[in-house]
Amino acid sequence: MSVESQQCLCFVVLLIHTVIGAGEGPTSTTATTTRIEQNELTVSFPPLEDLYNSTPEKHFATENNTVVTSQTGSTALLPCVIRNIGDGIVSWIRRKDYHLLTVGLTTYSSDQRFQAIHLQHSEDWTLKVRFVQKRDAGVYECQVSSHPPTSIFLRLDVVEARAQISGPTEKYLKPGSTLRLQCSVVQTTEAPAFVFWYHNSRMINYDAERGINVTTDPAQRLSDLLIPAASASHAGNYTCVPNNAVPASIYVHIFNGENPAAMQSSSPSPFGFEIQSCLFLTVTRFIIQR
Ligand SMILES: *[C@@H]1O[C@H](CO)[C@@H](O)[C@H](O)[C@H]1NC(C)=O
Ligand SMILES: *[C@@H]1O[C@H](CO)[C@@H](O)[C@H](O)[C@H]1NC(C)=O
Ligand SMILES: *[C@@H]1O[C@H](CO)[C@@H](O)[C@H](O)[C@H]1NC(C)=O
What we know:
CATH architecture of the largest domain: Sandwich
Order of helices and strands: HHEEEEEEEEEEEEEEEEEEEEHH
Strand content: 25-35%
Radius of gyration: 33 Å
CATH class of the largest domain: Mainly Beta
Helix content: 10-25%
Number of strands: 20
CATH topology of the largest domain: Immunoglobulin-like
CATH superfamily of the largest domain: Immunoglobulins
Bound molecules: 2-acetamido-2-deoxy-beta-D-glucopyranose
């Protein structure tokens, strides 16, 4: 008798039991329910050799197609929890080039940033990627050896954290006025450990005696630079450098009088206008011709 016809027969017997059982009062209903559960188990797990195998079924506890987002420079952790792994061995494979990264606790890749993390008696085989780079983005496969091997896939998204100084990229101030620069770290998945401020090439976080006050709130991903009375010596390039994000710069002009030369130099040149109108005419002509 084939497996299918056995299953079919089983199902018919089960149906009869259910129908008969329904009329026999509450006690036998319970007994029938138990039998249904047992029968369902035998019916829904072919092949037959598995029926007599008492070891619990191996399965992934990490959701398939999980997405992990990490910022560049940080450490990414791709989880892979497997229940009842038995003597199965876990491998991590980078899908974009089928590069074998780890087998068990051994790193196979020449790139030592990849490492499988597994504590004894745990069911977790996390892939750890240190100093995440943009090129690490993509799909990773956590594969367990069995016949056939089973896998789940995780996607690593990489964001590039960067500093951002609020306001325009150039600032114009009169001597004696207050210079306040606010730097926020955006697109982050983890707070910066520290934020350095540079005036040209000098690090100024601790230059209190030069009238500079830096306050950083890492949890809020914010750093403020305050100079209560700016003087000509405070002019120049200010750069906000978080330890784990792309820096941002702003140029500060300190000028006397109403109409600084610096402001005129940043106005658009007459050539710029001519080129723009020429381009506009060309595009217009192109559209009309069509
Ligand atoms: C996970 O999903 C992929 C398709 O995205 C599938 O091929 C694979 O069999 C799934 N793994 C498990 C354990 O369900
Ligand atoms: C620096 O600025 C903060 C607020 O931005 C203020 O609380 C602190 O007293 C200032 N420190 C100095 C030395 O001026
Ligand atoms: C300001 O300094 C930063 C870092 O040194 C540099 O990348 C940037 O080009 C400088 N900007 C100006 C306008 O000099």
